[in-house]
Design brief:
Oligomer: single chain
Distance between the termini: 59 Å
Largest sheet: 5 strands, mixed
Strand content: 5-15%
Bound molecules: 5-phosphoarabinonic acid
Order of helices and strands: EHHHHEHEHEHEHEHHHEHEHEHEHHH
Radius of gyration: 23 Å
Number of strands: 10
Number of helices: 17
Shape: globular
Helix content: 40-55%
Length: about 450
């Protein structure tokens, strides 16, 4: 009862021998993650994080979650990138898709909204209108504490909350998650007296979902964070230094994707067959894209939601440029059961499916697509989990984190920095005439 990986459909592009030939390199990359012997060793706090979260830390998060759940019908998670996507991935995957549409009294959990992940004036304005008559709270997340997008959103939402419920009540409804000592958010949280959680120095944003960055919003959404972390800890153990390459699933996945990349497969498409997994793919895109896309190298991580995208991107995948491979996340057993009903008239011709589970149709779409795409020259890696629950999402999270670290080392990059994200910020600050950017402002304006 664990995550599994099926590598039998690589379209003849990489053989088992070729994979095994890389086992030593992959094992050495895995060891380096545990020993901190390669680039980025300051950012390896995530490696043994699942097994090291203490009872006290769980309780602290659960208690803060209870306060927010008690005071608020809506909780806004303010953050961007690694300070946003992990929580949303887990919350979307593990909560009822329609619960948020229920009237407040019937709803089991607060509605979770997200802000600070864009700078859209309409988005913020519409959110403020919506929150005007709601009992809401805020989880403000920023490791640096200085990121522009969440800072703007927080300023607006804090003003609204203070206007609505007053300063004292606001303090109960705002939690800040940031650096232990540095950054504007730390200064603000300390001066206002907000409840705070610390993002450890040695864990980068995109690896932080199992810190309070992810765990607090996830707990507020009513999800069992202990089970989530247990799942992650299982894969931590299943990939430690004592485990040989043949059993180290993230290492095998990392080798295959690197071998495919070396053979011209420059784009990896993460495929899901359940809309609840859409944001897991967004999280995965950030994890791999930001970790590997540097030094003019790196697989481009893309994602599709099937079967919806089979009716749009399916054409490209089947017959477009052969530079892609697919990694499918497959869920063996859905949580619910719905049968295709019988219809006397059968005008839609669907009676041949009557009495079958909807998931059987989904599974045949999945199998049929895999066979068609492999026939079309698209290698396929299949990652299977038994069902969608906390434990297996936890397993998937650690599986991908570990794979990403190993894969980055195999590629020859530092998977734990992101120097390239600064370029847009400097231009934006120069264009906005931020104090300190006077020279840059002159220079950029002369180019316009
Ligand atoms: O993975 C990363 O480091 C980034 O995506 C950051 O999480 C993102 O830029 C947000 O940064 P911060 O948490 O400092 O506001």
């Amino acid at each position: 009862d664990s995550i599994q990986i099926n590598i039998k459909n690589l379209a003849g592009i990489v053989s088992e021998e070729e994979i095994l030939r890389k086992s030593e390199l992959a094992t050495s990359a895995n060891n380096a993650l545990h020993d901190g012997t390669r680039e980025g060793s300051d950012f390896l706090g995530w490696v043994d994080l699942p097994s090291s979260i203490t009872e006290e830390e769980f309780r602290d998060i659960e208690e803060a979650a209870t306060v927010l759940r008690t005071h608020c019908d809506v909780v806004v998670v303010v953050g961007i990138g690694g300070s946003y996507l992990g929580a949303r991935a887990v919350i979307d995957a593990l909560t009822n898709s329609f619960d948020w549409l229920q009237p407040e009294k019937k709803r089991k959990n607060p509605v979770i909204l997200y802000a600070g992940n864009n700078i859209s004036e309409d988005y913020l304005s519409e959110m403020i209108d919506y929150l005007e008559n709601k009992e809401f709270g805020i989880i403000n997340i920023s490791k640096s504490g200085t990121t522009t997008e969440p800072a703007i959103a927080f300023r607006l939402l804090k003003n609204l909350l203070e206007k609505k419920v007053g300063n004292e009540e606001s303090k109960k409804r705002i939690v800040a998650i940031t650096d232990a000592t540095k950054g504007a958010l730390r200064t603000l949280a300390d001066s206002e007296g907000y409840k705070t959680f610390i993002i450890p120095d040695n864990i980068g944003g995109r690896y932080s979902v199992l810190t309070p960055v992810g765990l607090l919003p996830i707990a507020v959404a009513g999800i069992n964070i202990r089970k989530l972390v247990t799942g992650a800890a299982e894969i931590e153990k299943a990939t430690d230094k004592t485990v040989s390459f043949d059993y180290n699933l993230p290492a095998i996945y990392a080798v295959i994707r690197n071998e495919l990349y070396r053979r011209g497969k420059k784009i990896e498409i993460l495929v899901n067959y359940h809309p609840k997994l859409h944001f897991l793919a967004e999280w995965w895109k950030q994890l791999f894209g930001e970790s590997e896309g540097k030094d003019q190298m790196g697989i481009f991580p893309a994602a599709v939601d099937f079967t919806a995208d089979l009716h749009s991107m399916g054409q490209w995948i089947q017959e477009g440029e052969r530079t892609i491979f697919e990694t499918v996340i497959s869920i063996k057993e859905p949580n619910k059961k719905v049968l295709v009903p019988h219809d006397e008239v059968n005008l839609d011709g669907l009676n041949y499916l009557k009495g079958k589970r909807v998931d059987e149709v989904n599974k045949m779409a999945e199998l049929g697509t895999r066979l068609a795409h492999v026939d079309g020259g698209v290698p396929n890696i299949l990652i299977e989990i038994p069902e969608l629950n906390e434990k297996y999402i936890g397993q998937l999270i650690y599986f991908f984190e570990k794979a990403c670290g190993i894969s980055g080392y195999l590629l020859g990059v530092n998977p734990f920095n992101q120097p390239g994200v600064e370029a847009y910020k400097s231009n934006m600050f120069a264009l906005l005439e931020k104090p300190g950017y006077e020279e840059a402002t002159k220079s950029i304006k002369s180019k316009l």
